[in-house]
Amino acid sequence: AEVAADALGSEPTAKKLRAYERAVMKRFGREFELGIRARRVFEQMTDEDLNSIFELLKREDVQALVLENFDFDHHEKLLRALLIKAPRLLPSLELKRILKYSRYLLKP
């Protein structure tokens, strides 16, 4: 907020705007990248795959995990929690389905 106020409070200069962009990317760059990769996965999912995700989200243990780890601005915490629990969740999602979409998470 301080950097944004500095960049936008007075006359915004190219230097101030670059500083703002760097600060935002330093703080949220990883989250932006994670969001882009997640969007790629969801864009490729079939209706059947999406239904499987929603079925998984109906489980009380998954709902509790999401509620405990959800942060609107920081998705990584929830993703880590889901990955830690993944061995117990994988049978519900089917390995073939997971592998089908893993390339969208891994490619830059």
UniProtKB/TrEMBL annotation:
This is Uncharacterized protein. It comes from marine sediment metagenome.
